[in-house]
């Protein structure tokens, strides 16, 4: 017997991925509903071999569903997630609205599955930031083996992390460069085509951006608050797939060969690490895949107990839609999804 599932924000990039992944992983679905704002009433989306039509969130009865996958803005989620949770279903929210709420678990199933036991406090589970999700999948098994002391991360984040408008801007600007047309930025603060932008989100008083702060705050919540983490987030002209250059300092020795074997056995990780000119993964190859890929694992000769590695994943999948569906699978496996009465 399957569940009744609602996808809120079903017309967006991540919402559509959620629908696709529910089918890909054979999540037990009896009924599926696409929900969005009034502007999207009647918009057609696909699930399995059928078309479903968006319903307005204002009119939708959430008491008839068991689990809700949310891909909306933080402000929208702040308004709607508590209302939906009070009607019974567990909300798995992809926005930043609930990640640091002490009564809301922030979950990556490969990293902290036991935190799902806290889900009924507010009937909300938070999905981490896309760049954090892939990072913690790679860090957690190493932290378990040789406690992590400090991490230095530089991200190379694709434009799809900024939604459809980001993808459209890269596409339009790229065409414009070749036709000598205008390339004025709209979604991004500067031209993204054939460029990189060392700024994502908004500046905090300390000079870091809120995107960078999300990564260390969320890593602390999911793995260990004692880990020192510093981040520089960069937007790059790639359509899909986030990459990260990661330097890790451990409290005890862990060499590259040990790390490689640990990561090969870790859930959700695929190691592609050969010492040749094609022995690594790029975001293009990670696109459409479920795994977090780790390459370029090597000792850091400049400091003791340190390693470098390269971490790549599809940000629309593991960084967003896939992780949300995996949380739903985790709840199903642990018997935490209560079926609503017909």
Automatic annotation (TrEMBL):
GO terms for molecular function: aspartate-semialdehyde dehydrogenase activity; NAD binding; NADP binding; protein dimerization activity. The active site is at residues 130, 242. The keyword Oxidoreductase applies. It comes from the Bacteria. Pfam families: Semialdhyde_dh, Semialdhyde_dhC. Keywords: Amino-acid biosynthesis, Diaminopimelate biosynthesis, Lysine biosynthesis, Methionine biosynthesis, NADP, Oxidoreductase, Threonine biosynthesis. It catalyses: L-aspartate 4-semialdehyde + phosphate + NADP(+) = 4-phospho-L-aspartate + NADPH + H(+). Phosphate binds at residue 99. Its EC number is 1.2.1.11. NADP(+) binds at residues 11-14, 39-40, 160-161, 315. One of its GO terms (biological process) is threonine biosynthetic process. CDD domains: ASADH_C_bac_euk_like (cd18131), VcASADH2_like_N (cd02316). Substrate binds at residues 157, 235. Residues 4-119 form the Semialdehyde dehydrogenase NAD-binding domain. Pathway: Amino-acid biosynthesis; L-methionine biosynthesis via de novo pathway; L-homoserine from L-aspartate: step 2/3; Amino-acid biosynthesis; L-threonine biosynthesis; L-threonine from L-aspartate: step 2/5; Amino-acid biosynthesis; L-lysine biosynthesis via DAP pathway; (S)-tetrahydrodipicolinate from L-aspartate: step 2/4. PANTHER family: ASPARTATE-SEMIALDEHYDE DEHYDROGENASE, DEHYDROGENASE, PUTATIVE-RELATED. Catalyzes the NADPH-dependent formation of L-aspartate-semialdehyde (L-ASA) by the reductive dephosphorylation of L-aspartyl-4-phosphate. Belongs to the aspartate-semialdehyde dehydrogenase family. Homodimer. This is Aspartate-semialdehyde dehydrogenase. It comes from Phenylobacterium montanum. The gene is asd.
């Amino acid at each position: 017997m399957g569940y009744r599932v609602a996808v809120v924000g079903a017309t967006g990039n991540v919402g559509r991925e959620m629908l696709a992944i529910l089918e890909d992983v054979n999540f037990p679905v009896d009924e599926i509903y696409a929900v969005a704002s009034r502007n999207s009433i009647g918009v057609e989306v696909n699930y399995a071999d059928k078309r479903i039509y968006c319903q307005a969130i204002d009119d939708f009865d959430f008491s008839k569903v068991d689990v809700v996958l949310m891909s909306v803005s933080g402000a929208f989620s702040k308004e709607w997630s508590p209302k939906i949770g009070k009607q019974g279903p567990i909300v798995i929210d992809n926005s930043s609205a609930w990640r640091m709420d002490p009564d809301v678990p922030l979950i990556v199933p490969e990293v902290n599955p036991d935190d799902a036991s806290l889900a009924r406090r507010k009937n909300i589970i938070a999905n981490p930031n896309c760049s954090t999700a892939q990072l913690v999948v790679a860090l957690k098994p190493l932290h378990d083996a040789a406690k992590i002391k400090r991490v230095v991360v530089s991200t190379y984040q694709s434009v799809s992390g900024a939604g459809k408008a980001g993808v459209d801007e890269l596409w339009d600007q790229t065409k414009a460069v070749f036709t000598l047309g205008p390339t004025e930025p709209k979604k991004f603060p500067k031209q993204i085509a054939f460029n990189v932008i060392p700024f994502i989100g908004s500046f905090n008083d300390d000079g870091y951006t809120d995107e960078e702060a999300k990564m260390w705050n969320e890593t602390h919540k999911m793995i260990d608050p004692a880990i020192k983490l510093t981040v520089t987030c960069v937007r790059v002209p790639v359509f899909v797939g986030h990459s990260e250059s990661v330097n890790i300092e451990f409290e005890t020795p862990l060499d590259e060969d040990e790390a490689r074997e640990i990561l090969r056995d870790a859930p959700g990780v695929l190691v592609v690490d050969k010492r040749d000119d094609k022995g690594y993964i790029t975001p293009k190859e990670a696109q459409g895949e479920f795994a977090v890929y780790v390459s370029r694992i090597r000792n850091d000769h400049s400091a003791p107990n340190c390693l470098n590695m390269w971490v790549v994943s599809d940000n629309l999948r593991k960084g967003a839609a896939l992780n949300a569906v995996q949380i739903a699978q985790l709840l199903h496996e642990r018997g935490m999804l209560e079926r609503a009465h017909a």
